[in-house]
Amino acid sequence: MTDLSAIHMTMHRESQPKVGISACLTGQEVRYDGDHKYHELIMQELEPWLDLKIFCPEVDAGLGVPRPPIHLVSQPDGQVSAIGLETPHLDATESLNHSAHQFAARQAPELCAYIVKSRSPSCGAGSTPIKNNQDATSWNGDGLLVSAMKAACPDLLIVEERELDSVEKCRAFLERCYLLSER
Questions:
Q1: Smallest Cα–Cα separation from 123: which of 33, 57, 53, 26?
Q2: Partners of 81 in the β-ladder
Q3: Considering only CA atoms, which of 36, 170, 26, 52 is closest in space to residue 114?
Q4: Which value, in Å, is the radius of gyration of the alpha carbons in the chain?
Q5: pLDDT in tens, 48-81
């Protein structure tokens, strides 16, 4: 016997705006410390109305859970590297950039928006500390995934979870997603 509610949900999901989301925000235990950053308001107010595409670039890049924490470091040539915070010999730049660019090429054109985890070396959107070689924060910028997404799809709406801290802000974001998905 076919589960009609499952078929209805599938058909319903297909008509909803496609929005990427950092996996840790959905409750998946994918952070470097094996924890999550479940965002109750996003999941209550947005998840029923959006076709969420859940992604963790660190897990996709094969970094494992748990894993040594990384941070972004500005190099003398202007590039940014993902270096182990406590293990400076760890350089995850190549694997994270590869994962980010692959995801961006596959998914960005299908998405109308992306909800990311603030301050993340992969997912932060303007809030990720970029350190200099003396371990001081030089500026706040984008994580590696967000940089790849912006390059692949400059018009993609990218918001950090901290921008969705009220029911009103969630509803305004939802309205923008529906408008963007109609284009």
A1: 57
A2: 73
A3: 52
A4: 17
A5: 999 999 999 999 999 999 999 999 999 988 899 9
